[in-house]
Design a protein that fits this description.
It is a single chain. The protein is α+β, with helices and mostly antiparallel strands. The chain is 38% helix and 10% strand. The protein is elongated. The chain starts with 5 loop residues before the first helix and ends in a 27-residue tail after the last helix.
């Protein structure tokens, strides 16, 4: 039932609000009520009382101003040291358009760096994005003649952010068995001075200064190299085709 005086009653009983979260909820509701009734927010007594009560709760049994500023600066420093893709993987990006845009921009960079570490050169692979719906992260895909890599967030779990498998050409979308790695592995540079190459005949251009550790393929890729490296005499996977496109002998 609509009560035009609800925010004023809430403000008069502000002492019953004992947590910052509840006080902030009450303040936001009062502000929203002022906006609906086109009442000046800065001069509304209910809003001002609730705001003062929120301030009092923030001062009770909490560190002083200087300590709080120090805590914020330390948090900013810690966040800056964490790759944004790992932060997104931890928090998720469902129904967050801004986070999804950042995921696809940073994900493409990470996948391109992986392509270089695998020895793929321009022209023998492609990197593409599939945005998907608002409830999912979508995928960033690396597709070459011999390997298919898909990066996504939140579909199966943190250990399954990256899927890779062997394929036979860029029209093969099923290929061999799936193998998995985490985003942490994808982003963690290997201390090895040389990158792992997917094809022994290909060479990858350095992607970091000579005096810095070069990025190498994640350990899961190195341990499962047989999953995507072509080898003479091995069984080839045939690209899947719809049943309607197959030739049937009657």
């Amino acid at each position: 039932m609509f009560d035009p005086a609800a925010r004023h009653h809430k403000a008069l009983d502000a002492r019953s609000i004992t947590t910052i979260a509840d006080a902030l909820t009450a303040l936001n509701a009062a502000v929203a009520d002022c906006e609906r009734t086109r009442h000046p927010i800065d001069r509304d007594p209910a809003v001002l009382l609730l705001a003062r009560h929120l301030g009092c709760l923030a001062l009770e049994d909490h560190p002083d101003h200087a300590a709080l500023r120090t805590g914020c600066m330390e948090a900013v420093s810690a966040i800056g040291k964490t790759p944004i893709l790992i932060t997104l993987a931890r928090r998720g990006i469902s129904y967050d358009a801004g986070a999804k845009t950042t995921f696809h921009a940073e994900g493409r960079k990470a996948v391109k760096r992986l392509a270089a570490a695998l020895g793929l050169v321009r022209g023998d692979h492609e990197v593409r994005s599939c945005q998907g719906g608002i409830a999912v992260s979508g995928e960033i895909i690396l597709h070459s003649d011999h390997i298919y890599v898909q990066l996504s967030i939140g579909l199966i779990g943190r250990a399954h952010d990256v899927m890779f498998r062997r394929v036979e050409g860029r029209s093969d979308y099923t290929g061999g068995p799936n193998h998995w790695a985490s985003i942490d592995e994808l982003l963690d540079p290997n201390a090895s001075p040389r990158a792992s190459a997917a094809n022994s005949s290909s060479t990858a251009a350095p992607i970091s200064p000579p005096d810095a550790p070069r990025y190498s393929a994640p350990r899961s890729f190195q341990e499962n190299r047989h999953a995507y490296q072509p080898s003479p005499g091995t069984r080839r996977y045939r690209p899947w085709r719809p049943r309607s496109a197959r030739t049937r002998l009657l």
